[in-house]
Amino acid sequence: MNMRRILPIAVFAITSLVLAGAAGKLAARPQASQQSQQQKPGDDSGNMQNMPGMDMDHDMPGMKMGQGAEEKDQQTEHGAMDAMSHMHHHQMGPHMYMTKLRATATPQEWAKADEIASQLRESIEKYKDYHAALADNYRIFAPNLPQSEYHFTNYYNGFLESFTFDPSRPTSLLYKKTKTGYELIGAMYTMPKRVSEEQLNERIPLSIAQWHLHTKLCVPPRGERVSADWTKFGLQGSILTKDACTEAGGTFYPVIFGWMVHVYPYEDSREKIWNQ
Question: Which residues, other chains included, contact 97 with Cβ-Cβ below 8 Å and sequence gap of 6+?
């Protein structure tokens, strides 16, 4: 696993929403735009509730199916936030599932991947100025949390990614922090956690790219999160089963985010562009 990728929580997976929920999301876009433009690089107002890849009991936070579900979702999100605050490097381990690289990619598959990278590179060029990303509703995840890679996520794009794929419309933009702001280095696509690997393969060939899921999260009890033993809890903790989590008094989530894949279109080789 490439150590430059921090686990910012990333991209979010979307459900096939009821029309009313989708309409509510669309109606909220002007307000979201205003909020995103007001967000400063050092502002944690977006912080971890707006993490890319968020996919708890429902595939899209904010699209709740009732008051009880909403409360449960909020508890889950807060628990994941605490867990993620104790993460450091994004690395392969028992809390991550990655698709396996399939047999050698065919010329047709490489042509498809090359076209995706080309369209992505062209479409995100304007976001080399990160202020343009903020103006276009991309919100920074945890700007005050030290990371080697920062996710700027557009949740409306993520909603659309649940149904259609447009290489020029990534869910998240990936930046490296600099002394003067942020340097654009790549982007992230997402799909809901419910989709099959064959569906992932149809979008981006699994002979070229590896999609990943974050799994087996045990969140400590709400009142004990500040003093919790994070060698046991969280996405670097030793707890890997529901039984062990229950015994420790925590809440267990087999899968917490949707499928994610990173792309680095400014790299100088195909392999580096698709290196996870």
Answer: 212, 213, 215
- Asked whether 9 and 46 are in contact (CB, 8 A), the reply is no
Q: What is the predicted pLDDT for the residue at 49?
A: 39
**List of the chain residues with pLDDT < 50:** 1-38, 40-83, 85-89
Domain-wise residue ranges, the chain: 19-217+254-273
Count CB neighbours of 228 within 10 A: 22
Burial of residue 148 (CB within 10 Å: 0-12, 13-18, 19+) is middle
Contact 69, 21 (CB under 8 A): no
Residue 68 DSSP code: H
Report the SS3 class of residue 77: helix
DSSP states along 165-197: --TT--SEEEEEE-SSSEEEEEEEEEE-TTS-H
Nearest to residue 182, comparing CAs of 138, 222, 235?
A: 138
Residue 182 sits at φ, ψ, to 5 deg, of -140, 140
In a 10 Å sphere around its CB, with 0-12 CB exposed, 13-18 middle and 19+ buried, how is residue 165 labelled?
middle
Instruction: Return the structure tokens found at 77.
Output: 């999100």
Could you report the per-residue pLDDT of 35-75, keeping only the tens digit for each? 444 454 444 333 333 444 444 333 333 233 334 444 444 44
Q: Which H helix or E strand runs over 76?
A: helix 67-85
Torsion angle of C-alpha atoms 244, 85, 127, 1, degrees rounded to 10:
-50
DSSP summary character for residue 6: B
Residues facing residue 219 across a β-bridge: 251
Residue spans of beta strands (DSSP E) within the chain: 96-98, 139-140, 150-153, 172-177, 182-191, 212-219, 251-255, 259-263
What local confidence, expressed as pLDDT, does residue 143 receive?
Answer: 87
